[in-house]
Design brief:
The protein has 289 residues and is an all-alpha fold. The chain has 14 helices and 2 strands.
């Protein structure tokens, strides 16, 4: 069945029900976070719950960037999140770029030159199957010895190390979809092996690289354990900053939700910027013959 036939196939009522049920499960948490971010203090924990506040309050958004107190006399001050956003952006972008570079080179080696043998890709991914806590403490000891604790470089290296298996696997799968005949024809025309990789195959898989970059960026942007273990005061990422909204006087649901909404915005912007390549990357190799 072709893609055109699938696209025009009529959905049954049960199919539409499952689609709307799935959309509800996916979208409701986002709706609830957005709704809570616009509620005033007295509406955070009311019963029955308020789904849409009558008077949307923006003080939650203002407070997370000014570090002020809510309601003029609230006992707990809201933490300023500006530094955590900057730190997350630096570490996530740096870790993603480094991971993609490592994954791209490793993927060419695995896909085109069978480096490491047939089982090397399995071993590579198996190393990532271990829980991050297994490596967090040894990594902390190593970083303490070489002075990388609480530094951007240390966290970027850690992010790249833990996401490189994913990027290698994903990029290798896209390279496998490009016929070797194209590179061999280019070599007949005088190109070297390295030139065929980067001048013939690489332009054809840029959509796949964009999809891989988005996936790796999401992993880095939401990573918590390594950031909590390897940083202390100078570097504070968004997932670690979230725990600061648990105060001695209670949890600051409104500002915390506003912070969650703000944290989603860079992912949406990144997705929109690479949307053209992302669609091609996600469907790359899905249709054959």
């Amino acid at each position: 069945m072709s893609v055109e036939e699938v696209s025009v196939e009529k959905q049954t009522p049960l199919g539409w029900l499952l689609i709307f049920l799935g959309l509800g499960l996916v979208l409701f948490p986002l709706f609830w976070i957005l709704s809570t971010s616009l509620k005033s203090i007295g509406e955070w924990l009311t019963y029955p719950p308020i789904f849409i506040p009558e008077k949307p309050a923006v003080e939650n958004y203002l407070s997370i960037f000014t570090g002020g107190a809510l309601g003029g006399g609230f006992v707990a001050r809201v933490p300023n999140v500006t530094n955590s956003i900057v730190s997350s952006a630096i570490c996530s972008v740096g870790g993603t770029v480094l991971s993609i570079l490592i994954g791209l080179l490793a993927a060419f080696g695995i896909s085109r030159h069978r480096m490491g043998g047939e089982f090397f890709p399995i071993f590579l991914l198996a190393a990532r199957m271990a829980p991050p806590i297994v490596a967090a403490i040894p990594l902390l000891i190593l970083y303490s010895m070489i002075g990388l604790v609480d530094t951007y470089l240390g966290l970027i290296l850690a992010y790249a190390c833990f996401t490189s298996p994913y990027s290698t696997w994903m990029i290798a799968s896209f390279i496998e979809e490009v016929p070797r005949d194209l590179e061999e024809a280019a070599q007949v025309d005088g190109m070297s092996t390295l030139e065929t990789h980067f001048k013939v195959t690489l332009p054809l898989i840029k959509g796949g690289i964009a999809a891989t970059a988005l996936f790796v960026f999401i992993l880095n942007w939401s990573e918590f354990l390594l950031a909590l273990t390897l940083t202390h005061e100078k570097i504070l990422t968004i997932p670690v900053q979230v725990k600061a909204f648990f105060t001695y006087s209670g949890q600051l649901y409104g500002p915390q939700s506003a912070f969650g909404v703000v944290a989603i915005v860079p992912l949406i912007i990144f997705s929109l910027l690479i949307q053209k390549h992302l669609v091609r990357g996600l469907t790359f190799g899905a249709i054959r013959g």
